[in-house]
Amino acid sequence: MPPRRVVLRGALAVGCGLLLPAALFGCDSKKGENATGAAPAPTDSPATSPDAAAPAEPVKASQASVQYQAQPKGDQKCDGCLHFIAESNTCKVVEGQISPDGWCILWVPKA
């Protein structure tokens, strides 16, 4: 009977000999082409197109989802927040009219 090391080396060689071609078969050196060699079909989905235009208006969070309140929380008020737009009493990230004395969980101090 052959020594254990010889048997294990043989088993390893046979296993690698069977698995390596199967693993390499899945690797395709031609990225962007399918198995027939043809280029992939273009998609009409605007979400996946790199040239797709961004939405004109950014999506803002609702006042309820950010726990907006018309009263300040301590010294934290909307007019001292980085996101507050004083000219229009609006916020960059929260929808609707915002009170300068309001507060929400997204409050960030102005730098």
Automatic annotation (TrEMBL):
SUPFAM superfamilies: HIPIP (high potential iron protein) (SSF57652). Residues 49-111 form the High potential iron-sulfur proteins family profile domain. Residues 38-56 have a biased composition (Low complexity). Gene3D superfamilies: High potential iron-sulphur protein. GO terms for biological process: aerobic electron transport chain. Keywords: 4Fe-4S, Electron transport, Iron, Iron-sulfur, Metal-binding, Signal, Transport. The keyword Transport applies. It comes from the Bacteria. Residues 33-63 are annotated as: Disordered. The keyword Cell membrane does not apply. GO terms for molecular function: 4 iron, 4 sulfur cluster binding; electron transfer activity; metal ion binding. Coiled coil: none annotated. Residues 1-26 form the signal peptide. This is High potential iron-sulfur proteins family profile domain-containing protein.
